Each structure stands twice: as C-alpha cells, then as structure tokens.
Write the structure tokens for this entry.
Amino acid sequence: VTLWLLFLRSRLAFPAALGLGLIAILCWIAGNRWGNHADVVLLASVIMPLAAAAIITVTTTSPFGEVEHTLSRSLVTLRLGHVAGLLTLAAITLFGAVTAWHDTALGWQFVRNVLGLAGLGLLCACVLGGRWSWTAPVAFCMLALVVRSATSGDAPQWAWVVQPASRVTTGIALSLLLAGLSLAARFSGREVDGDSTA
Amino acid sequence: MTRLLRIELRRSAALWFVPVLAVLVMWGTSSTMRPDGAPTLWERSSVQLGLMFVVVAFIMCGVGAWAAGRAQRRQMVDLLATMPRPAALQDVTLLTSTVGWGLVACVVAGAYIFAVAHREATWGGPAWSPIVVGLLTVVTGTAVGYLGGSLIPSRFAAPLVAVGFSAVVLLVGTRSSAVAYLSPLSLDPRGYSPYDLFYRSPSVPVMQMCLWLAGVTSCTLALVVLRRHRALSALCMFAVALVIATSGAVLVMQAFVHPPWERIYPGQPLMAYEPTCVEQVILICVHPAYAAFVDGSAQRIGPLVEPLVGVPGGPVRAKQLPARVGLRSDGTLEIMPGALIAARAAYDLVHEPETELSPAQLVIAYWLMDRVGEPTSELWLFTGAGQPEATVAAAAARFAALDSGAQRAWLSAHFQDLRVGLIDLEDLP
C-alpha cells in the first residue's frame, strides 16, 4: 500500500483525481443550465472529456527517470493501475454528471471520448513526454470540430470525437486506448520527463 | 534586448512546434476548403485558414503556459532575479519568441495554402480579414497562456490553460447574442452554401476585432508585469489595456449588423461576373469560380436533357444561378456543379419548384437518369421516402421500351402536364 501511495503521489494522481471531480461537477452544472442547447452539448461532449484526458495523461510524467528502474517490483502493474484507476474515475464521474443532461444517451459518448482521448494522449506521452501529452488530444479535438463545422455537421469517421456513439467510433476509441495503455505500461510518459527543451 | 531575444528564439520550446503546427494547418485547411466537392474558392480557403490559425492559438496557449513555467521548472527563479535588467524584460522576450515561432508556423502554412489557391482558384482573391484575425488570435492565445502559466506553477497548467482557453472561445462563439462576435470563430460563416459566391460576403469589422484582441493581449501582458512588479506604472498600464479591451469589445458587438452565418441574400446586389459556358446539346453556363467543372458538368447535363430539348416547356439552356429555382418558365434550368448535378437536374426537370414529386414524375426522372447511365439511387436523396425503387424502375423500363419517336411524341404532348402534376402513374405509356 505504501508503495502504491508513494507512486501515486509521485505522479500527482491525487490532485488529478480532484481535478476530475471538479470537471464532473462543472459538467453537471453545465448540463442543468444549458443541457438543451445542441451547440453546447456538442462542445461539452468534446471539451469535458478532453480536459479529463489531458489531466490523466499529464500524470504519467515520471519525476525519477531511470532511477525508477531499480525498483524490485513490476513497474507495469503500478503504471497500469495508476492510469486505469484515474480513467475509471473519470468515466464514472463524467457518466454520472451527464445524467443531468437532457439527452441521457450522451453518457456513453462522454465515456468513449475520455477513453479514446486518453489513449491518444498516452501515445503522445510516449513520443513527446508526459508533460506534452495534451498536445495531440487538443489538436485532434479542435481539428475535428473545425472539420465538422466545415462539412455542415457531416464529419468523416476519423473525427470520431464529434460523432454520436456507435460501434465504429467506440472501436476506434478503444483501439487508441489499448495502444496507449500498452505503450504507457512500457514507457511511462518517456523516462526523461520531456523537459529537455527550455 | 536583441541578444536576449536571439537566445530565447534559439532556445524556445515553440521552435519544435513549428513543423507540426504548419503541417496541421496545411492539412486541416486543405481538407476543409473544398466542402461538398466544391472547387477551390479564395474566400472559403481564407476563412478555413483563419479558423486553423485559431486552432494554432489553442495549442500555442498551452505552449505559452509551458514557457512561463520554465524558470520554476529549472529552479532558476532566484538566479534570474539577479539579472541587471527589469524583470518584465524576461517575460517580454520569452513571450515574443514563443509568439514568433507560432506566427512562423502560420505564415509557412499560409504560404502553402495561398500557393494551392493561386493555382486552383479560377475566380476572386484572398480575403484578408479572417487571416488577420486568426494571426492576432495566435498572439492573444499565447499571451493568455503565458499569464496562466505564470499564475499556476504546475505541470497541469499547460493542458488546463489550453483547454480552458479553447472552451471559452468555442462557447462564446456558440452564443446567439452579440457576445458571440467576441469570439474569433464568429468570422466563420458556419458552414458553406454554394450560393455564397454570388454575393458579397458579410463585412467583418476587422479593425474593431483587432482592437479587441490587442486589448486582451495588452491586459494579459500588463497582468504579467504587475505580478512581477507591483508599481503604479504597471497598474496604469493595466487600466489603459482594460479600457482598450472594453472599447474593442463594445465596438465589435456594435459593428456586426447581423450574424454572418445568417445568409440574408434576397434583395442583396449580385457580384458582377462573366459566366463560363460550353455548348453540349444546350448552352451550359457556370459561375467562373466553377470554370474547372464546366466540361464535366456539360458532359453529364447535355445527354441527360437531350430527350427534352425541343419539347414544349423543356429546357433550352442550363445555368448556375444564385438561387434554387429549378426549371424556369423561360427554359433556363438551374444547375449546381458537383457530384449530384445529374440527379438534381433530373429532379428539377420533371416538376415545378416547391411541390412534392409525384410517382409519374419520379418515373420520368428515373428514366432520364437511367438512359445515360447515371446512378438512379441518387434521386432518392431529393425525393426522400415514397415510391419503392422497384415499382419506379418497372414503370421506367416500360417507358424505356418505347421507341424514341413514341417517347418524344408522348413527352411533347404531356411534359407540361407532367410538370404540374396532372399525370398519374397509370397515365404513363
């Protein structure tokens, strides 16, 4: 337990969990006030999961670098447990918060988006480092919104984040999550914390 | 100062973002500037480029926050405090270098898009307003991010500030009140109408937008300076910046006559243009912006209308017009170049505008398309639900089985009645 607690503390998992809770509360309030505005619903279904995914992936940054490899226990379990725990928390809190919205089917869309965007962020973390992991999800979401606006709402399948929940889009999101998790378990937001640039 | 700026430019994290952001803008603009198979239009390309600059602003906002936290991450706060120059100078040079690289990415991508548009567009010229506003948003976004990064010294600062800034810009842009104009996204006509190019685009109060964005940037800069040095001069600077931002906001909200996405075309003057025409069975003309499509359109429309040429009430010319009018009484058939040009023309040929398609009309439209090998299923995109395709196809096959003389004789006698809906399915031969 002590090891788990120390690992989670080193990854700022507790402030992250607090942040996820705040996002869910914000989502609940937004749903109560503007839940029947189509534009707001669309933006919230992208922005709220994006914020949650960005918070989760940033926590993969390792503050120890190679020193962490001297641990006698498997790092894979710790890394997966940490990310999976935060993802579960984000999915549950967002799903619960969306019950305040008029279209309750949105819950699955929020969950799909947070999982898929977190997968994308974890992939990015392996390449650029945990601290830059938010860049790919943010760029992808904004691009998807622009494409959706330019195509009068008829966005292509790759812009799954702005599509209603379906088997194909859920499949894409879960594939991204699996790929991200498997790489995150191995590399943990790049061992050097991505802070090599000024 | 120049030396410090040179060092910051060389060591800036934003430098690594230049190729990525440039590719993102190039790809994003290229894939959205030709909606629904439309040709490359200068105006649409400029709007999409401006929008992609706003996306760059969202990312640069996070990069700005990252840059602001550098001294703390490197544990150099005390060291830098000994610099024999005003502390605000560090912020100004660091922010300038970060903004500079963001703008370089935009300019590189913009040059590529302009080259593509220059090569492909056959009419009009670039619209500068969305581009200028987009570039200014990059500056504002980076400055806001820098302020956020200065205030929140945490690894969560960059993503939270970037997502927060995007959320505010996007949400403000969705409002239906005048507040929406404060978002740079309000410059986007929200979608694309193929009739846009016939009319002058809604005027964008670019100067007012510049004042507003410059005001917000000045406010953030003043707050950064104020955080470092709580002096009366910094406070005055913030007050002036606040006045500029407020004046800009008020002027922007007053300047828009009506939302740019509300297309109020009737009564507006048409833009002068010389149509591009070819002769293929009948004269077929398109807007010069669609000049690249004229041959393809003629090859599909000419054979389609051939059985109706010379028939009373039939088409005598086909033109791309600024409104959806179908087949006019003077024999002008309105066309819209694109993938569905044939289905739309067949649909318009057989019935009067703003009436439901009857089964007999659908049969003749089906026959017109089927005889030239056009995909008949596209007709159902216009008619919606109704007659099952098998019934229509069987009736069309009976009509197609007639010899061309009999077909022409029947059309000469009944085409006008068919168009006004007086012919039933049983009346077809």
The interface with chain B takes residues 12, 15-16, 19, 37, 39-40, 43, 47, 50-51, 54-55, 58, 61, 130-135, 138-139, 141-143, 145-147, 149-153, 195, 197-198 of chain A (CB under 8 Å).
